[in-house]
Amino acid sequence: MNKRARFVILLAVLAICFLFLWPSIKWYGNTPKEVQTLALGSTENIKDYATAQAAEDVRTIKALALKDSNAKLDESYAWLEKAAAKKYKSVKAQVPAEMTVSAVLAAYDSEGEFLEEIQARYRDQILDAKKSYENSVKLGLDLSGGMNIIVRADLDAAVASQGDSVQTTDIEAFKKEAMENAIENLSSRIDRFGLTSPVIRQQGDDRIYIEIPGAAQTDAINTLIMGKGILNFRLTDMEATDAFRLYYAQHPATTFNAIGELMDPSIIPDDCEVFGVYEKDSYGIDERKDWLVVKKEVALDGKHVQSAEVRPDQYTGQLQVCFNLDAEGTTIFGEFTTAHQKEFMAIVSDNKVKSNAQINDAITTGSVSLTGAFSSDEANNIKKVLQTAWLNVPLEVESQQVIGASLGAVAIRQGILAIILGISLILVFMLLFYKRSGINAIVAQVLNLYIMFSVLSALNLTLTLSSIAGMILTIGMAVDANVLVFERIKEELRSGKSRAAAVSIGFDNAFWAIMDSNITTFIAAIFLSVLGTGSVQGFAVSLAIGVCSSVFTALFVSRLMFDFETDVFHAKKVSIGWGIKQ
Q1: CA angle 351, 394, 189 (to 5 degrees)
Q2: What whole-number distance in Å separates Cα of residue 569 and Cα of residue 582?
Q3: Quick check: helix, strand or coil at residue 209?
Q4: Which of 75, 264, 300, 413 could serve as a FRET partner for 439 with CA atoms 20 to 30 Å apart?
């Protein structure tokens, strides 16, 4: 392969690596702290923030228009003036010569459309930052701070709480379902708590591993874990719901305040409250689809639900969600449904409406069926909501480790210092011992780190202290490859070879020695990454990446630099060590 082709390949590799690394650069170097905090929150928090901020902006702009319709918007709203001008053009209307507040407002057909324009601005800004974070190198708990918790689920107690309703042959299936429900509950609660990208997964048969980056209050988290979801059934006020929906469509910016409370409580009856109607989206996250006005009085508490299942209707074949009530719940529900036939009843879980069904007939048997042309996912989601009430899985915090953000900052500084110090000492040695050829090793080392971080970013890997240790070890191994090549070149120069011949033969003779050592290291790293866990796995992954990048920089980049000096600068000698005569 000629030098031009190798140079093009090098430029392509560097460009691709920059694309991989750009999200990390953007996130850590160009995203304000307040935006980072919002982007790391739950999707629901982002939506609420964007809605609240947009509503505040709409109120501010409308107040300015009432005060002086010819006033100009603040410079921070320059983007809104451009959006309004674009709106005029989209309907083929003349753009006003001067974009005043009234001109901006006139570009939109309704307050809702104007609110959506501003809300989209906030939403896109935060979601863009969130996307950068998702595609960047993550910092582990030992660097970013946070806490990890191992929770043990007492599945035997869950089985015992069901009495004889669980058959001996079904115990394992029941335990599996109970474990899935416990994880679902924790995921819902912790995400609703507004925590930062939590990791929640099953560990073994009866343990749940929870990892929460960032600062978190230990007592609040423990209360959240040990608590139980609130499930109840309430009567829906459909007349008030229709009136509220109409009001909200006309006043989207002035219905709720920044913390989600009604700014004018009189728009709904005194004995009612408004909840969002939520459905699982394609990512499994609760997404608000609508609003519902329900009675404050709880018709039936979820504790009376004893079991739930999804099964097809025997007549229509459509999926339905069926659940059974205990004796007390049967009596309460029978009286309630008798009194409210043809009205609607909402299932409310943790202040979210998960289903709203019409009461077709009085239900006095304690066996309830919810119908509504459900898809499989919809039916199973409602089933899981009902299970939060009857699957009583006692949870116990088995171990808990809290790492303060200050400790993480210290670890980052120490890790960076170790890398800089290690590289500096190695490069000083290479310059002193191999003279000008040591510059080739310096460039190779810098590119080695650049490629390593790029790959980490491309694979969305988590950077931990053990990963930094793997990088530092890779630096030493990369220098070892340069040393092998340089010593081979020195041998050829001592035998009287020319610069071009010595460089060519030196790289060729050192090739297999370098490959043998790095291949064996790579194999060991692969086994460690597959069989190891935690810090061992992080060390192994960074080591494996470093081995590949160090071979590329030592054999490809370094040789290209030697050949460039030979062919472009027409160098005749090699400055590669003391006592080498040419």
Answers
A1: 30
A2: 18
A3: strand
A4: 413
